[in-house]
Amino acid sequence: MRYRSTRGELTANAPNFSDILLAGLAGDGGLYMPETWPKISAQTLREWRSLSYPDLAAEVMAPFTAGAIDRDTLRGMCRDAYAGFDHAAVAPLCEVEEGLFALELFHGPTLAFKDMAMQLLGRLFDHVLTERNRHVTIVGATSGDTGSAAIEACRGRDRLSVVILHPKGRTSDVQRRQMTTILDENILNIAVEGDFDTCQDLVKGMFADKEFRDEVSLSAVNSINWARIAAQIPYYVRAALALGAPDREVSFAVPTGNFGNVLAAWAARQMGLPIKRLCVGSNRNDILTRFLLDNDMSMRAVEPSLSPSMDIQVSSNFERLLFEMLDRNPTRCAAIMREFRETGRMAVPHDAWTRMKEVFDGMTLDDTQTSVAMREFYSESLYLADPHTAIGLAAGKRFKEAGIPMVAAATAHPAKFPDAVFAATGIRAELPPHLADLFEREERYTTMSSEISGLQAAVRAHIRRN
Ligand SMILES: Cc1ncc(COP(=O)(O)O)c(C=O)c1O
Ligand SMILES: N[C@@H](CCOP(=O)(O)O)C(=O)O
């Protein structure tokens, strides 16, 4: 499998999976996409019903890694990656109401769906870097969950230096401490004066600085890296198979911020999984739902909410969907993205918007509605949802159709957001034993302004130290 950028033509020496894993973002600022969509036949899907989660993950991902990583090696890494999850099914389904399911993606070490990809990515990085005898520097932006999952997956790995930027004061205390109490030498946490979009912009700014990018061998763990998306596709396949696919359609509702998770579901659909609808749940930072309702993709200031991991306005992976809806025309895609950057408004052609609407729905919940959703799912179904999951479940409930199972992505454990969960339900969600002393651990992080040159200097100094 070869890859191309959303902003550039397919080249003769197009990169393979290992190349794009290390590159993160394409040199032209675009996002990597597979050259073609691998197709899974109905018969193959039926045969996959009996596979364990790790073996299924390897089968789903194998076409994307073809030509770079052999299937047996990949299977071994998948088995290793998911061995530490605290549920035998890895990503279990729980029926919350008739026809409405929660797909629990928070059974990994840092209690959010990010572990589903990141536990594998840590191993993939190690494998490829050892093979190539290289070292890379990962600079990641987080609104709370990517950071801790990346740190957990990459800590202590000799060939990786990791710098994570989080927006100062805008994550939950549990989320911050999950990052800042990891004291391994190769990890640096920086609290940036700004919001998540500021952090993500800084990461993209570092990639755009070619000299810096080459000097530090910059790489990415955010969902701008295609490897993240690829590793998030298998759980949609697993859930759909459990509910009758390929002989029955299934819909998904996904609490959305950077658009990576729902894009993985869309990729599964492109590969042949019978997905009827994809429902995007937003908090008050609702650029995506405004877009889906009125083709209004206009930036507003990022507002703090009860679901801080979704406090995002620039949803990076939307570019991948746009590229597809523009029939993979990189020139048009680049022009629209450039205009969005310059004006804060994305002019999506009407026909592209209409095609997106054939699959996607959107729903916004403000904080009050999010609390009500948490309270009702608990009182009516005894399902304790974190604020992000509650938004997904509420969107799923709204768009559920008779006879078609609706699966909401349960993206975080309620103990990551104990105050919001307690205020809504009166229940104090406990951290699992491996995190029970989180609030007694030493924290280490630096606070910095959003000035890029200062951050680049901090990255250089971090690499020199380890
Ligand atoms: C708990 C949680 N839910 C939902 C989201 C949104 O997912 P995505 O950014 O893939 O749209 C995030 C952040 O990515 C998250 O951490
Ligand atoms: N919600 C995320 C934001 C970054 O998203 P990513 O999927 O692009 O890494 C977070 O928790 O950090």
From TrEMBL:
Residue intervals of the Tryptophan synthase beta chain-like PALP domain: 100-334
Cofactor needs: pyridoxal 5'-phosphate
Enzyme category, top tier: lyase
Pathway: Amino-acid biosynthesis; L-threonine biosynthesis; L-threonine from L-aspartate: step 5/5
Highest taxon in the source lineage: Bacteria
Positions of modified residues (N6-(pyridoxal phosphate)lysine): 114
Reaction(s) catalysed by this chain's protein: O-phospho-L-homoserine + H2O = L-threonine + phosphate
Signal peptide: none
Keyword Lyase (UniProt): yes
Keyword Lyase appears in the UniProt entry: yes
Family classification: Belongs to the threonine synthase family.
Name of this protein: Threonine synthase
Species for this entry: Gluconobacter wancherniae NBRC 103581
